[in-house]
Amino acid sequence: MTASEVREKYINYFKANPRNHKEISPAPLVLENDPTTLFTSSGMQPLVPYLMGEPYPSGDKRLMDSQPSIRTVDVEEVGDNRHLTFFEMLGNWSLGDYFKKEQLPWIFEFFTKELGLPKERLWVSVFEGNNQVPKDEESAEIWKSLGIPKERIYYYGVEKNWWSRSGTPQQMPVGEIGGPDSEAFYDFGEELKLHENSPFKKEKCHPNCECGRFLEIGNSVFIQYKKIGEDKLEELPNKNVDFGGGLERIAAAVNGDPDIYKTDLFKPIIEVLDSGSGKKYDDNEVEFRVIADHLKAAVFLFANGVTPSNKQHGYVMRRLIRRFAYKMNKLGIITLKELPKLTEQVINIYKDSYLKDLENYKVHPGIGSEIDKFFSTLYRGEKYLDSQPVINAQVAFNSLATYGIPFEVSRELAKSRGQDIDITEFEKEFEKHQSLSRSTSAGVFKGGLADHSPEVIKLHTATHLLLASLRKILGDQVVQKGQNITKDRSRFDFPNSEKLTDKELKEVEDMINDTIQKSLPVNFKVMPKEEALATGAIHAFNEKYADTVKVYFVGDRIENAISCEFCGGPHVGNTSEIGRVRIKKQEKIGAGVIRIYLTLKPAN
């Protein structure tokens, strides 16, 4: 069974009666200027407001999807047979509707009947309870009724079987929701002797053991508590379910092989690496796995409009590319002739799901250019490291800052000498280096807003008018390529071959101020995405939106609005609140990209 078939079976299973879930569109992978995270890292992330009680726009209470996700917290673990930075999460949710007695039998039926996993191979875990929340005997009894014997039901504490966005109940701030969870594990069997041949062989094996015998394939979270004070939780009036299961892991269980890199989601990439390097996967597992995973993440980031840089999303992309480029170098792949074949395999794997319109000839040059840059400094960086008698945190940071050498490269060389780098000290050096840039971006809100001050909100609306004016004067090809708004200015990037003439700049500025002086209302509508698209509202073409979106428009009616965009807000209620604006300057920041700075004019 292919991974695509697993995905399709999951979607169809939860759509069918009596489950009757609504399939929702996956959230954008890249979250632009979100203060909490750069990327969507799970299917539930966009649903947090609704899990906290806000009604879902369409009124549905049963939702499900398959969500591409990126998590870099485990980047150091990539290279074993189960960890990834890019993965796909199957998810289903109950927003105050069904609960444990429905969820656990459904997911059990999906695993055993739809996918054909032997129930004898399934082990589960439940919450052991503490002084605030009782032991989850209800889930344990449900599992027993499904045929899971008590010997295969394990109880764990808050570190393993509790979920909230912040962690354990002690880590939750007042007002946050969370609850116990129940995980399902696939047992690859004692016969593989994975435990006996692991670093954990002297410990007792159990479902959460890291030996590789067990693989978590799903987690049902029962969001039923809200923190109301120090060490005090109260039950929510509406209890929710949040299920997540990694597609790659489920596919590995279906294959009966604990190595997720042997699924069809990775096999084509591995085969190109095998033929291109002349080396075998079984002899170079770590290198092959890091390249395959990080390459996949880089292609998806490119597809979502990210390019390598030293900031935020671009920095993560650069780090991933350089990590896998170093592994390519170790395999002897020091030319880039194999790269187009590798990126093509990633696109082919997802061409029927997420990368339908991505063309390989646009992808591999962008990634290849970053690899070229890295290879050009790698030799000098390694020479610098070789010249150091001790490779410590300071040396590792210097090699990163000067030559762009990833920390992992420095650490690997240090280990080969029997030395060790204090990662805490390295992170301190890195923090010192980043403190200035972080101080300017730490409070950035989603949509490019630094905060929700009156000045920022005025400039946000003025930036919508800027885009509308640019499109009037230059044409409808003008779209937003980037945006950042502070209380002092709005910075707006858009595609154009040349800077605007002085005459064009004045026309744009005058058009914005004329609209402001008309005292037009600024309204919004929440509507289905397809209906919003039909209005002609401006939106990002490389971004995946939810099924229901918010559209802001300037004017009395959306049909003849001066500005109409997909946007989360906030905005002024009337253009007259803005005052007047001026275009402070423009600059060309790259091939075919112009940046304009817009400011508020002081009141007379």
Going by CATH, the homologous superfamily of the largest domain would be Bira Bifunctional Protein, Domain 2
- The total beta strand count reads 16
Number of helices: 17
Integer tally of domains: 3
Provide mean pLDDT, rounded: 89
What spatial form do the alpha-carbon principal axes imply? Answer: globular
Q: What percent of the residues sit in helical stretches (DSSP H or I)?
A: 25-40%
Query: What is the straight-line distance between the termini?
Result: 71 Å
What share of residues are in beta strands?
15-25%
Largest sheet: 9 strands, mixed
Structural class: alpha+beta
CATH architecture of the largest domain: 2-Layer Sandwich
Oligomer: single chain
Q: At the third CATH level, what is the topology name of the largest domain? A: BirA Bifunctional Protein, domain 2
What is the CATH first-level class name of the largest domain?
Alpha Beta
Write down the Rg.
Answer: 26 Å
